[in-house]
Backbone:
């Protein structure tokens, strides 16, 4: 097994974006592609690491870039300032996500007919938005994502299977938000499932998360369980 990485420049209009593709060059032929949508700080070593792990599982993974080449947040205030315009303009967000998905499909190691997306925190909202557009992909996985509805996708049919992996004590996605998401996904015809981990807060997959006051705390057990759930889900959607 030799995991390879390639930086990929792509564009949304005049905005230059830079994603990172990971794949195992010991494998022959195209393999399913998995888009990795970043948290609020922008594409980082954390998301690139997730892409490398997916490559070890036998996929081609593309860590997308929403903010622009070299644009990253250095702390909560900068991260929030980068994320907020996309929360305010979900049409812009969805367009950039779909450009990223199309870019992944065009990469040599990727089987363009078998694609999925995973996202962490803000990225969890992002992959739910990909599904909400009705995009043609096999599935999406949201890790401790935000559940706020898009506001522009009512009446669409979700074609992607949906898996939400959620900390029950996440202050950014309350039980009321969970119920609202379940009703939304059902109304949109989705094949959906939600795994909620008790006594677990936001950012449970991030070993650097340790701010109980903010509600962001790493949980090794939930991290391990959610990774296994993702693996089972990807195996199901790609191999049925």
Residues:
């Amino acid at each position: 097994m030799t995991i390879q990485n390639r930086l990929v420049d792509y564009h949304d209009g005049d905005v230059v974006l830079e994603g990172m593709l990971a794949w195992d060059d010991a494998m022959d032929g195209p393999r399913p592609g998995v888009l990795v949508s970043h948290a609020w700080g922008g594409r980082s070593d954390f998301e690139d690491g997730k892409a490398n792990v997916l490559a070890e599982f036998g996929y081609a993974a593309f860590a997308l870039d929403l903010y622009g080449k070299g644009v990253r947040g250095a702390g909560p205030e900068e991260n929030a300032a980068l994320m907020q315009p996309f929360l305010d303009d979900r049409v812009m967000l969805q367009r950039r996500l779909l450009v990223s998905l199309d870019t992944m499909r065009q990469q040599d190691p990727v089987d363009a007919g078998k694609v999925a997306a995973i996202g962490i925190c803000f990225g969890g909202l992002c992959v739910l938005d990909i599904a909400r557009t009705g995009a043609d992909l096999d599935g999406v996985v949201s890790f401790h994502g935000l559940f706020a509805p898009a506001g522009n996708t009512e009446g669409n049919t979700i074609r992607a299977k949906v898996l939400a992996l959620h900390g029950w004590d996440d202050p950014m996605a309350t039980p009321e938000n969970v119920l609202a998401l379940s009703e939304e996904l059902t109304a949109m015809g989705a094949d959906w499932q939600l795994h909620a981990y008790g006594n677990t807060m936001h950012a449970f997959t991030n070993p650097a998360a340790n701010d109980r006051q903010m509600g962001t705390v790493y949980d090794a057990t939930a991290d391990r369980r959610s990774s296994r759930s993702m693996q089972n889900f990807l195996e199901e959607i790609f191999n049925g």
Summary: The longest helix spans residues 220-239. The chain has six helices and ten strands. The first strand starts at residue 3 and ends at 12.
